[in-house]
Write a structure and sequence with these properties.
459 residues, Urease, subunit C, domain 1, alpha/beta, 4-stranded parallel sheet, globular, 14 helices, Amidohydro-rel, TIM Barrel, 21% strand
């Protein structure tokens, strides 16, 4: 069986039960999809064939990052001055952005997925959850099929959140008719995708979650049927919660969003919500008690500007937290590495206003790795240890950028930030990015194809 021996790593972040710990000047042996051994002086040549030795002098080796919330399709709608949050109210922005989304075609969804996943991989992300809720009628139903195609091309470990919107704008949603589905349409396609792609086995590269877009844009029955399907098939549930919609939900249903979702059964260890910046401590306590997780997306906070998500309270109360990039409509990059730094710095900015202390910098790295794995129901990723998936990235720290920082690899991502692509990204034991190139792929062609697909849409 083939594999790699990463020889003489400067530092490797290994999991030892109590959490991640830095090990200095050791080797890391990968065989097939898994980490087999870690320690000084490893030598695989006597016991197996097909093991390539990789010189890792100066490298810090980390478990791969786990992105728990994104909207890949929005990479085709970014860096747009006319859609700047600072010039529009939220309602004005939604009214302007959704018609733009509705013009995308099937090829756009494929190439925007390649674009987002490429950037994620370059910056150390090895598992990505995408919340694909945009299904224009003209684009058909095979959008997520094309996303799985893109993930296979790049070697990305991919979790697809099949989203959807069912409530018409005439009844209070923000969704144009072109993007609406019936509950039956939505549930039927969720079931099709689960049957076609979901793999719950160890080291699975493909999984599917039932992910109605958000309660304000869906009928109650959509969430009820989502719970029934997800529990029947044993898959996760995901939606947007706590991003300013709670007063709307309360006016419609007599309760805020967290209680509404819990009443419908859309809560528990098999559910996680995106954002949650407006939630009260009481609501967070309920989520901690029932096991519902949170995908914290720090960078949209800069644009929305309403509140900085209370991560210290979530940590203190025991809420499961992972990190997400979110879509390019509210974060114009797909760089989860940068989000680790943003998450920490935002909490420092408002520390004096919080009841609980800001978690240690290393905690934000943990949220981006094993925390994200927990949200996705995975015990085989998010950590480096023998028997775990060989998902990792490496940074050669023998650069001026890292002078004075190398004593604390665990805090590096959060406190200092890493502003360049990795030197190596490995997913499931396969090197997918190394020395500035995607393995076996022509980035210039990927770029040209994506630009060509983008040019077919008039915005």
């Amino acid at each position: 069986m083939s594999g790699y021996l990463l020889k003489n790593c400067e530092a490797v972040i290994l999991e030892e039960g109590a959490g991640p710990k830095v090990h200095r000047n050791i080797d890391l042996l990968i065989v097939g999809p898994a980490v087999v051994a870690a320690g000084a002086g490893l030598d695989a040549t006597h016991s197996m064939d097909g093991i390539a030795t990789v010189k890792a002098d100066g490298w810090f080796v980390y478990p791969g990052l786990v992105n728990t919330h994104h909207h890949f399709f929005q990479t085709f709608v970014r860096n747009r001055a006319d859609l700047d949050w600072t010039k529009l109210s939220v309602i004005e922005w939604l009214d302007r952005i959704y018609p733009v989304f509705s013009r995308l075609n099937e090829d756009c969804f494929y190439h925007s997925s390649v674009t987002a996943m490429s950037e994620l991989i370059k910056h150390g992300c090895t598992t990505a959850f995408d919340h694909q809720y945009c299904f224009p009628r003209h684009a058909g139903k095979r959008i997520i099929d094309r996303q799985f195609e893109a993930a296979e091309l790049l070697g990305m470990r991919f979790h697809a959140g099949r989203g959807g919107n069912t409530l018409p704008k005439s009844e209070g949603s923000t969704i144009p008719d072109e993007m609406l589905e019936t509950t039956d349409e939505f549930i039927a396609d969720c079931a099709r995708l689960i049957d076609s792609y979901h793999d719950g086995s160890q080291f699975s590269m493909r999984q599917v979650a039932v992910a109605p877009c958000q309660p304000v844009n869906c009928y109650r029955e959509t969430f009820v049927e989502s719970v029934a399907l997800a529990r029947d098939r044993g898959v996760l549930m995901h939606t947007h919660v706590g991003e300013g919609e709670s007063p709307v939900i309360e006016a419609r249903h007599g309760m805020r969003t967290v209680d509404y979702c819990a009443e419908l059964g859309f809560a528990g260890p098999d559910a996680f919500y995106a954002h949650c910046w407006e939630l009260t401590h009481d609501e967070l306590s309920k989520m901690a008690a029932d096991g519902t997780g949170v995908s914290h997306c720090p960078e949209p906070v800069y644009l929305v500007g309403a509140e900085v998500t209370d991560i210290p309270a979530m940590s203190a109360l025991g809420v499961r937290v992972g990190l997400g990039c979110d879509g390019a409509a509210s974060n114009d990059n797909s760089n989860l590495m940068h989000c680790v730094h943003s998450a920490y710095m935002l909490q420092c900015l408002v520390a004096s206003t919080r009841e609980h202390q800001v978690p240690e910098p290393a905690e934000f790295f943990r949220q981006a790795t094993s925390g994200g794995a927990s949200l996705l129901g995975r015990s085989d990723i998010g950590r480096l240890a023998p028997g775990m998936a060989a998902d990792l990235f490496a940074i050669d720290t023998r650069r001026m950028d890292y002078v004075g920082t190398r004593h604390d690899p665990l805090s590096l991502l959060a406190k200092v930030g890493i502003g360049m692509p990795t030197d190596l990204t490995m997913i499931n034991g396969r090197i997918v990015w190394s020395k500035g190139e995607f393995t076996g792929l022509d980035e210039a062609k990927l770029f040209a194809d994506a630009e060509a697909a983008l040019s077919t849409v008039e915005f």
